[in-house]
Amino acid sequence: MPSRTILSGLAAAALFLTACGEDKVATYRVPKEKEPELPMAAAADAGTPGDQAAGAPMADTSVPTASGADLAWEAPASWKAKPASAMRKASYSVAADAGESDLSVTAFPGDVGGELANVNRWRGQVGLSLLRADDLDSAVSRVESNGLKITIVELFPPGDPGAKSILGAIVPFGGSTWFFKLMGPEASVKASKPAFIGFLHTVKAP
Amino acid sequence: MPPLIRQVRNLFVSLRLTVVLLALSIILVFWATLGQVNLGVWGVQQRFFHSFFVFVRLGEFRFPVFPGGYLIGGLLLVNLVSAHAYRFRMGWRKSGIWITHAGLILLLVGELVSGLVQQDFQMRLDEGETRNYSESIRLNELAIIDATDPKFDDVVAIPESMLANGTVVQSPKLPFRVVPREYYPNSTVTLRSKTPNAPPSPATQGMGPMLAAVPAEVSYQDDLRNNPAAFVELVGPEGSLGTWIVHTLLGNPQEFNYAGRTWKLFLRPVRHYSPYSITLEKFSHDIYPGTDIPKNFSSKVRINPPEGGDGREVLIYMNNPLRYAGLTYYQASFDPSTDRTTILQVVRNPSWLAPYIACGAIALGLVIQFLIHLAEFARGRRRA
């Protein structure tokens, strides 16, 4: 009965067809994705008097922000841009499984009191004791990316996993100092750390 | 027929084989149910059911110790089809059994096709956002993107499994070879300066030199995602261009210039592009008053067809998915931190109707067979 043999043979072949799935390299062309909107345009002149009406109610601030050339960056698509204020060059909501953190980008003329003063300002915000100048180098990491010298500060208060923590970066550029500060609950900030480091790597001079 | 072939045929058509296979499948289901505690649903599916053998690791080696779902299901299929071809006789009195068995065969084939071709993706949309792709929940790919054209991206997507196997990729679309040097199925990344004991990084370009990738245990939990890392070397005709680290946790592609073109390297979830796009117009999340218990969540989306035009609006909510262009969009989850972000599960399963038809056929066959027996019984009583 050849037809019966063929029928059984087909059924057996179906069994072994299951081994045929194989991974392949795919190539395709897609329209460019729209980059996540950066609130740079609105924030670019945050320090100039004419823009103050567009800012938050705090717009009438006496703190001058840097008004020279702006740094540029690419934020991950999952970060949500928030409206910039007169103080902030940009602002993002950074969501992780463990909760949400806030990323602020600010820039001020000069060295704003120096690295130690600013690291201690951040330490104060998360309830850590102040550092002495001798301890500064061991408390920060220094990297160079896109020709910019970046000082990275990690501030996680011990003992309380829910405590406010800061992952920050200080970038001197064009006579100003730029601050990138990711602040939120420890678990959330820790989970967003790789994305933050990746983000820092995209920061570059225009 | 030669005696050996006859013996094999007799084995395949025997009812004894059916009983043994059914017994094995009971043991397999029981074992897999226990395994679900550690492996999760997806891990169990892969290890026990979407495999020919269940492997157990002893030291360095993996040994097949039990037939897997594909082998048992496949042999049951062969057994059933062969039995029909050689043993069963066509006739009205057996028509119910024939229909029931046809339903069983459809069920087995449908499950096989589902296992082979079903794909699960996820689409995450913020209110107002439009996307023309969904992303795999578990599989990743290394996307090498030629971003030179201001309007288009030319993408070469290399599956994660090829990075894992160390397969060298030479694509006609790339002016360099891609050589995977190291691969970790799950890992974390830390700043190198914070990890003084980290071994020297194989990476020489991009972010790699300032990062240390630390391998982590692979997770099979449903709610945890593995974060693979790889070090890939790009080799052009005149030699190595350098080695990059790629990691799913780095939210951005790494950019470099080569051969007068701008390239981007990005390890990301596998993307499935559609010719149409979907816009989230509104996400609604209702809770019972005075509690945090969700009452209903729904996504009002607009499908934008490739030919342009206004498209159409659809409301996706629990148990009311959108079926469009061979894909099914289910309301799966949302981002509780914003309440403005929906997460849709996107499933491609061309054989989704098979189990419904199969179960209908099995039920119909059983009813017919019962009625035939009932009629014969009644006739027998009347005669007596």
What features would you describe in this structure?
The complex is a heterodimer of chains A (206) and B (384). Chain A is of the alpha+beta class and 206 residues long. Chain A contains 6 helices and 8 strands, in the order αβαβββααββββαα. Chain A has helices at residues 2-17, 40-43, 115-125, 136-139, 186-191, 193-202, and strands spanning 26-31, 80-82, 90-96, 99-109, 140-145, 148-155, 164-173, 176-185. The radius of gyration of chain A is 25 Å and the shape is globular. Chain B folds into 3 domains: 3-117 and 353-383, no CATH class; 121-130 and 275-348, no CATH class; 135-272, no CATH class. In chain B, α3 runs antiparallel to α4 (95-117) and α4 (95-117) runs antiparallel to α6. Chain B starts with a helix and ends with a helix. The model of chain B has no long low-confidence stretch (mean pLDDT 88). Classes of the chains: A alpha+beta (206), B alpha+beta (384). At the A-B interface, α1, β1, β5 and α6 of A face α3, α4, β4, β5 and β8 of B.
Write the layout of secondary structure elements.
The complex is a heterodimer of chains A (206) and B (384).
Chain A: H1 2-17, E1 26-31, H2 40-43, E2 80-82, E3 90-96, E4 99-109, H3 115-125, H4 136-139, E5 140-145, E6 148-155, E7 164-173, E8 176-185, H5 186-191, H6 193-202
Antiparallel strand pairs in A: 2-3, 3-4, 4-8, 5-6, 6-7, 7-8
Chain B: H1 3-13, H2 15-49, E1 53-58, E2 61-67, H3 69-86, H4 95-117, E3 119-126, E4 130-146, E5 152-159, H5 160-165, E6 169-170, E7 177-184, E8 187-191, E9 211-215, E10 229-236, E11 239-247, E12 254-258, E13 261-287, E14 294-304, E15 312-317, E16 322-324, E17 327-334, E18 341-348, H6 354-383
Antiparallel strand pairs in B: 1-2, 3-4, 3-18, 4-5, 4-13, 6-7, 7-10, 8-9, 10-11, 12-13, 13-14, 14-15, 16-17, 17-18
